[in-house]
């Protein structure tokens, strides 16, 4: 099997087909949020709609205040100022409430997504967990999924809010010039495309480095964990692991820096294009006001609308870019959740065992090789352990002792041959009934961060609350 580091490094020129394919998971991400809490989801929709309508209303009321001041109409000036104050209060209430709802939904969504990942991890067979490719998928899903799910929802509704606000501004701007609106829109597109392009590159670089990130985390764990402290000091392993850690970290830094510099250069360059278009329109408005074509109130309105309209449009494009990036990372989550469980092999036609081998454990010409390996860990093993007898299996490292136990526990299945317990093929045993017949202490056993009682109880989880049984 090809090692991850042997894969070609991602290009800085992603294909357009790949670029277009990454919005696949938006609907699934929003569905996750809806299932987390329909009530909070509806609240976000309602508050987003209100929040979108308030800024254009504020801009128009500001124009009315200027016109009333120029006309020296005191009563209408007071009326419009109070109206603007009411709108400011509404904006504050809506924004703070929206923040609260997003926080609550984010907490609920994070629990649900992490629970789904852990449910899937528990469901997978050991053969999948011990496969480096599957394990990297699990880690990628865990590292980004919960935060990206919320960010997907937030950016999607941010886009909707800014789009609705933008429509309000466009309606006001069309009275001035439709061409100006089109110029501002077109000038903002290149910078957004650049952001999305580099997001795609960053994501593929992130996935490409999965195996190396695992190595980096492991070396950090060895150097800073108390369970390794004695060996690190006795064998002088500190400098070796630290140098490897620094080497990997420096390479990550170099790759990230190169990408960040390219991204910053292009985004700055293309953002200046957008700013140039805005100030060109600003100049036209100012000249028309100087010639008396526009009133002072209209000048104020159009300047505010141009500035905030461009900001709203750029926010829309930023939300699209953010949604695109979140899609990239959510693809890791949904690809992991879509991994099918390994199919349980069937025993086929039942073999009639000799009467003297119907009680006990019988390995019948068993051969086994791990998934993705070419060599056999066990080859043509025939072994009979009679009922109520003790047997010690002795062998050098790599001889297959642990593999034999894994096969007996049905963590793996024989590549060839069969294993029988009391005359019945292990593949035909009910899994729970089989586990009740077996007790195992592996050489790399775990001590759980639980009480002593609970640590003893994990050996028979169904009786873990039976204190008398545990004693």
What are the main properties of this structure?
elongated; disordered N terminus; 3 domains; 68% helix; mainly alpha; 15 helices; ABC transporter transmembrane region fold; 471 residues; four-stranded antiparallel sheet; Rossmann fold; 4 strands
CATH architecture of the largest domain: Up-down Bundle
Number of domains: 3
**Number of continuous helical runs:** 15
The biggest beta sheet is recorded as: 4 strands, antiparallel
Q: What is the C-alpha radius of gyration, as a whole number of Å? A: 32 Å
The CATH homologous superfamily of the largest domain: ABC transporter type 1, transmembrane domain
How is this fold's topology laid out?
Layout (H helix, E strand, L loop, with lengths): L15 H5 L5 H11 L1 H33 L3 H50 L2 H4 L2 H42 L4 H31 L1 H15 L1 H9 L3 H53 L5 H42 L22 E9 L9 E9 L14 H8 L7 E6 L2 E2 L5 H6 L15 H6 L9 H4 L1
Antiparallel strand pairs: 1-2, 1-3, 3-4
Helix pairs in contact: 2-3, 2-6, 3-4, 3-6, 3-11, 4-6, 6-11, 7-10, 7-11, 8-10, 10-11
Structure notes:
The structure is a single chain. With 471 residues, the protein is mostly helical. The chain has helices spanning 16-20, 26-36, 38-70, 74-123, 126-129, 132-173, 178-208, 210-224, 226-234, 238-290, 296-337, 401-408, 431-436, 452-457, 467-470; strands at residues 360-368, 378-386, 416-421, 424-425. The chain has three domains: 4-337, ABC transporter type 1, transmembrane domain (ABC transporter transmembrane region fold, Up-down Bundle), CATH 1.20.1560; 355-439, Rossmann fold (3-Layer(aba) Sandwich), CATH 3.40.50; 441-471, no CATH class. The longest helix is centred in the middle third of the chain and has 53 residues, at 238-290.
